[in-house]
Write a structure and sequence with these properties.
heterodimer, A: mainly alpha, Four Helix Bundle (Hemerythrin (Met), subunit A), 7 helices, elongated, B: mainly alpha, 2 domains, 56% helix, flat
């Protein structure tokens, strides 16, 4: 590196490289570590709910078994497939961005967004069915004709876990829309695609949480 | 590992790898649903969590690039699960040392149609 080159670097420096980082790689790695730390707090937040679910299910297995029959397995499976496909399209979007494939990036981001929308629509039908039947959390539970008491506990966990997950999907849709707008403006290429990569990580974590939610809520025996 | 060593550049997987991963994830989903249709007692839960963990690992290693990433990210991710294990462990030791952990909301009347066998605690 000669000194004239560094002088040019300082005057017309890369707008995507912030001045407190030495290199693009350092900047990228730092962002990524930050994202992983955030994802860890997400794991712990959902983890608390999973631990609570596990303990209560162990204590009241009959109530949980009876309650889970109210869930529609096929809708749960459909949503699992939708989310897995969206995870695939998201990783393809990251790949397209890293290869400066502008059109593919926009297409894959759009498919991911559509999948997220489908997921929420399916969830809406599931929720409205449960609201209708009185399958609600805690004191709001008023389903008629139960033979096993305590089923409201299952629905407390069901609504807390899938609700929190649903809000994560919603948040994901917001940031993917933001990515889509920026991608259409041509902000991302092989030189700079950190936001796409980080949102991708977030989206995969949301998928990963559903991977555990689906068998635990819908398929318990 | 060795099957994908042909790529000369430092690639974080390509479309082919991602597509194969998606196929594996979908097959594992079918397997979970299939296994859940049998009553295997306690094995059901173990199988469900085991398959989910395989799926989550695939997502983390390939979709989240942990396989080729800087190790620090994997360390952060694993630390999250370690602390989750700690939480579970202390909750379990607490709950197993008690006689009757009853959630406060259980006092809310639940339409008890029949004297059900569910272990609803007798509180005083």
């Amino acid at each position: 590196m000669s000194s004239p080159a560094t002088a040019i670097d300082h005057t017309h420096h890369d707008p995507t490289l912030q001045h407190h980082f030495s290199t693009k790689e350092q900047q990228f790695d730092t962002s990524k570590i930050g994202m992983w730390l955030f994802l860890t707090t997400e794991i712990l937040m959902f983890g608390g709910l999973f631990v609570g679910f596990g303990l209560m299910q162990g204590k009241f297995p009959e109530a949980f078994l009876q309650a889970h029959h109210h869930l529609d397995k096929s809708l749960g499976a459909l949503n699992t497939i939708v989310l897995l496909v969206s995870s695939f399209t998201m990783v393809m979007a990251v790949w397209a961005a890293s290869k400066s494939k502008q059109k593919q990036l926009i297409t894959y981001l759009f498919i991911t967004l559509v999948c997220a929308g489908i997921f929420l629509v399916v969830k809406y039908f599931e929720y409205s069915h449960k609201f209708h039947e009185g399958l609600l959390p805690g004191r709001f539970y008023h389903h008629a004709g139960d033979t096993v008491p305590g089923q409201f506990m299952f629905f407390s966990f069901y609504f807390m876990m899938t609700g929190l997950h649903g809000f994560h999907i919603l948040g994901g849709m917001v940031v993917i829309t933001w990515l889509l707008i920026r991608a259409m403006k041509g902000h991302f290429n092989a030189n700079y695609y950190t936001p796409v990569d980080l949102v991708g990580l977030y989206w995969h974590l949301v998928d990963m949480i559903w991977i555990y939610l689906f068998p635990l809520l819908y398929l318990i025996q | 590992m060795s099957a994908h060593e042909h790529t000369e550049t430092h690639e974080h997987g390509g479309p082919k790898v991602f597509a194969v991963t998606l196929a594996a994830l979908l097959i594992l989903t079918v397997i979970t649903v299939y296994v859940a249709s049998f009553d295997l007692g306690n094995i059901n839960v173990v199988a469900a969590i085991a398959i989910a963990t395989v799926k989550a690992t695939l997502v983390a290693l390939i979709f989240m690039h942990l396989r080729h990433d800087k190790p620090v990210n994997a360390v952060i991710a694993i630390s999250g699960f370690l602390f989750l294990g700690l939480l579970l462990m202390f909750c379990l030791t607490d709950i197993m040392a008690r006689n009757n952990p009853v959630p406060a909301t259980l006092k809310v009347p639940v339409k008890a149609a029949a004297p059900a066998p569910a272990p609803v605690a007798e509180h005083h």
